[in-house]
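Chapter review: from sequence to fold.
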Amino acid sequence: MKIAVSGKGGVGKTTFSSLLIRSFNEQGKHVLAIDADPDANLAAALGIEGADKIVPISEMKDLVHERTESQPGSIGGYFKLNPKVDDLPEALSARLGNIKLMRLGGVKKGGAGCICPESTLLRALITHVVLARDEVVIMDMEAGIEHLGRATAQAVDKLIVVVEPGRRSIDTARNIQRLASEINLSSIALVGNKVRGETDRAFFQKHLSDFEILGFLPYDDRLIEADLNDQSPFDTDSPAVDEVKAIIERL
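The token string follows.
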């Protein structure tokens, strides 16, 4: 199963991704976790020790140079568009149980796009893990789907958009839906987060009635405290843990 998780910054996307990954791990599944959001730290949310010391792949200048045959930071010029990446999940992953985690990092760019060695390597890696790997793959994305190409997107089993009660979160979900449709990614579902009761559930069902809704995670101070204490939300007694397990059954 290949799952991409997206949503507006601050909605709890990484918390949900970590609960999903740890739940699959508890079931005995082998999981390849991809941290594709430069502003989050999926490793810390999973409970991987030394999470702050994991170097993002985009910052591994020697590796980028070796695989693309071009200098990192350069734009344009000649470099490999199909760099070798199939050995990277084993070589560069942090481990926890049956989980392998890779942190992609960000690519500093100006203007509307970037054709550069770093982004080419990351795009090739995402394509490989989605099309060629036989693990469960969970990708914690930015507030969009920038790392997904057309061929990759069509192989994703589900794009899950995490939303919270609020107009900006709804607008982001609509924008992600539009971007996904442009690359023929049609299998999209929602998870409502920080839900305080029936009023919030009704808000989602009213404004996002055309989406499949997989479930709702409660607003829970225990999840906030876990983040403050560098604890994985999966290791709390929050009802969100059981709800994510139910979401996996629906998937």
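Two observations follow directly from the output. The mean pLDDT is 91. The two ends are 9 Å apart (CA to CA).
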